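Hi V.,

You were right to ask for the full record rather than a summary. Here it is.
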Amino acid sequence: MASRRNKLIIITGPTGSGKSDTALQLARRVGCDIISADSRQIYRGLPITTAAPNSEQLAQVRHHFVGTLDLDQYYSAAQFEADVMALLPSLWEKSRVQIMCGGSMMYVDAIMRGIDQLPTISDEVRTYCMDLYNAEGLPAVLAQLDNLDPEYGRQVDRQNHRRVIHALEICLQSGTTYSSLRTGRIVERPFDIEAYYIDLPREQLFERINARVERMLAAGMLDEVAAVAHLRHLNSLNTVGVKEMLHVIDGDWTLSFATARLQKNTRVYAKKQLLWLRSRPAIRPLAAGLI
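Predicted structure:
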């Protein structure tokens, strides 16, 4: 007998793989909303740079957590988990099947596995860590993390500045080690979860990424970033796309050089996403267009 529980279908995948179109088609078929699991699309002001759903897509299906925060607002995977769990009961009333779509792996993990209860980071701690990173770079942040929590310092991806900064924030805020607060327990959800990631041949994925960068530039990405360049110190702007355009705005790079670098950096990010996805057997590969 088929389960009578509510179901959340998660569509994820590397950037540029077509997960948004797949989720949109499925949501129209089911008659449900889309919950965005994207840590950058949640902010207002950068719809082109973050490849947020356009006005036509938003008109077809209601999206949640798209363009809802100002760039200076703090947000975390823990807050995302709490907000989604609070939202779902009202969505189940509309349809017993709901869809989540996005490529922010910590957000996806927060819903599929739950997230450890960590302290809320104060403005003072957050500002200190970002000032340290901006002034002295990632090695300085790593040095402090290694001193406060050498165990996690050995585990963390030392090239992932967001995770390194977040770990230091937790250590400073809690007064204890981040590693001691990470239980690794998987929560039991009161609904079923099916998770898929769009799996494209590497060459095809990279071609899609390169073409999308060209479209974003043609749509006005440089002007979009220029409008918020004065806020570059904010964590919400510390992302692929913004950083390359800031080099153009500052006169350090030509637009053609920045375009090539953005395409390369996006491909590198996609490869990291694929590595993570393939480490999660609960997220099944799916060829584009098969849902």
